[in-house]
């Protein structure tokens, strides 16, 4: 698992600042043993706020970096034009009717999903790969609203991986009028979904996704929802970001997992 050096530095600096502030406040408190009770409470409160703020900055500033294959997939060629738009990467292939807006997994560099998006775009389903604040999809669940209606497509699909899929499902349940389908990659819905095309994909070696919650989430699927369990696939190989803690060991390559995923998405959505 790779971490961006700048992000690690930000985390270290945040914790050092928090520690320094705590030491300063403790020193002030000791010197002022005659402080009023109210003032001591304020000092204690300031310490906890400092720990919370700087600790949060440190936690969210560290995220999983994408691999070299993902960076290569961001390069345009004669088949797919890749460009940066507002808080997203846009994969524009030969298709003109279908587009998928994709939310990334928790604390994962969104660029890690470029190989999947590029493969879909090359086959006619253009993709908008969203950049999430703090690399957490719950921070902007309605991010897809920035793009709906701004492009001339007949069919609009929403989807995501892991936490990104859960947040995509939540937003789809709240804005059904915008969507023709939903793509869940190692993800599940916790809210009833409207009648639309739904395709769910996960690997049988996935060690991250909660299977019990996934099975319970099927109760929220609309009629006709389709599922693919990829033999030998795991949680992380939907993106190019290396090994994920707690995940199972895949017995197929990432390329094979992406290929099966793309074929299934195309079969269900078209």
Question: Which spans have pLDDT < 50 for at least 5 consecutive residues?
Answer: 1-10, 50-60
In DSSP terms (H or I, runs of 4 or more residues), the helix count works out at 7
Question: CATH topology of the largest domain, which one?
Answer: Rossmann fold
Specify the structural class: alpha/beta
- Which architecture of the largest domain would the CATH scheme give at its second level? 3-Layer(aba) Sandwich
Give the strand order, joined by hyphens, for the main sheet: 1-2-4-3-5-6-7-8
How many domains?
A: 2
CATH class of the largest domain: Alpha Beta
Structure description:
The protein is α/β, with parallel strands linked by helices and 270 residues long. It has helices spanning 5-31, 37-60, 68-73, 114-122, 163-174, 211-217, 254-269; strands at 81-85, 88-92, 98-103, 125-130, 155-161, 181-185, 197-203, 226-230. The protein has an eight-stranded mixed β-sheet, sandwiched between helices. Strand 5 (155-161), helix 5 and strand 6 form a beta-alpha-beta unit. Helix 1 runs antiparallel to helix 2 and helix 4 (114-122) packs across helix 7 (254-269). The model is unreliable at 1-10 and 50-60 (pLDDT under 50).
